[in-house]
Model the fold of this input.
Amino acid sequence: MITLLRDLRRLRRQLRLPRPDRGRSLAVRHVDAGSCNGCEHELTLAASPYHDLARYGLGIVASPRHADVLLVTGAVTTRMREPLLTAYAAMPEPRRVAALGDCALGLVLLGTPYNLVGAVDSVLPVDVQIPGCPPGPDRIAAALLRLIDGPPG
Amino acid sequence: MTVEATGTADPVESGPGAYRAEVRRLLGTGWRFAGLYASAGGTVVRTLLTAADGSTRLIGVAAGTAPVPSIVDLVPAAGWDEREAVDLYGVAFAGHEPMRPLVDHGPLERWTVPVDGHDAYQIAVGPIHAGVIESGHFRFHVVGDRILHLDARLFYKHRGLEKAAEGQPVQRGMAYAVRACAGCAVANAVAYAHACEQALGLVPEPELARVRTVLLELERVWNHLNDIAAVCAGVGLAAGNTRFAGLTERARRLNAAVGGHRFLFGTVRVGGSDLSAGTGQVAAARTELAALHREAAASWRELRFNISLQDRLPGVGIVTAPDALRLGATGPAARAAGLAQDVRTCSPRLAYRGFAPVAADPAGGDVKARFEQRAVELWQSFALLDALLDRPLHPATAGPAGVPEPIGIARVESPRGATTCAVELDGGRLARLHLRTGSYANWPVVAYAAAGNLLPDFPLINKSFELCYACTDR
Done:
């Protein structure tokens, strides 16, 4: 365990990640509305030592009640439309929606019309678009930081 | 009934009722169930069986007019397949009672198993989970913290990929196989390519087999690293999770360096490969793989001596070998239960000559065994890749060396087990595409493994399988 932690510290030194100069934070609630799991895998690694979202004040939270941003992956399926709307309704204002990945943006719509509602913006107002198939952890982090740094949507 | 043995041109006709008898006979002589699907329009139900040497047998039965005799009593692993054929193709089965919906989401009492008794109650989880997790619903029937039964209701992510692929040209159909799931993208893509090539009478030349094997093993490496991180996360061991997540990141960067994409999307096509990697590129990949192997082995040793992690693993989520066989468990989950089965031992279209599966010791079928199974398979994949990458990768093709067949069947060992792809072609277009992935086969096993365990151990049990929802739901 001690070696493992030392190992991690060494890794962090080697990576020399820049220190963030922000004083604010953003709580992100992820909802998979029908993805291929690629965006989820990349989002998971955004928290890995190579990117470390937490140093920017970006954190994934367990409930939409705690969230500033709803981060939605996948083209919305018929079966996920209601749960997605329920999660959005549970969020306190001010709230933002980020569409993560080409499917969420409606650029890749594979499936039958019966099973797919469509892009995230056909269901919810989208403030941030994060294109890519899937976007890498660095691009996800950079896009979310715009919500902290820039004037909102 | 028609018995369609792949490799034989003429389907064998038999009388009515012979479908069940033939399935029973083959199961009794060592054949194993590998999938069941309805043809386009739901007119024929086809059951696929495989032998230990990799040969496959497709048994068809007319489904349009009369109910198809169910085979779930002969092989419980066919349960989900029959339910799916009912929901998506309107097939009727006789003897499958109660027939619960799988893809359709009807009222609660239709899809849950009734559980009652003193203090028994239900806990509903999902479809949205409290982390970065795919969407799916779990209905736990519990007394206190003890799980009596688990009903998994998935298919929230059902996009109708197979249906949408119908009528598409063969090359275009690849998108549906790849986009089914990023975690198993290469396995699904290679299964699709093999199935189409079999139907078109094409056989990969050795170089194509080698390139695809490299891609499959690269996919296994990042997945197994990810799965070890996931189990650490499941017990709250942040140091182990972070360390293996870091290694996963490097494995994905290696994917991008070799195949141009972090999940290797676009690296597999039907009939050939355009991928090339020069001497320097291949040497760099080997060096990075050796470093990953070294660092993963060192971190793995740390995990083995971490008592707070190791104490959580043994005796949890047990799947015995007979249950694994009965329920149709596959991949690391099956091998960790003591079943020495791996499609890589019988993959003549790939470069796995001399391959022998490895197993955790002891292969106790619990979380501990499934966890350790990932490690022993990782070391094996590193060794395979080191041998495969001893020379540059060149563009290669599959040449006409076989007889075209109306139905192509392929099986590939994905990081989560045997993935079966069936394609039915109609003049260069897909009449039917069916993917039965390792995750699909293993989900009923997860539900079974959870019963009798403590609710707080479910995330750990779930992560010891680490199945995809995307390629189950399609």
Remarks:
- The mean pLDDT of chain B is 93.
- The first strand of chain B starts at residue 2 and ends at 4.
- The two ends of chain B are 29 Å apart (CA to CA).
- The longest helix of chain B spans residues 206-234.
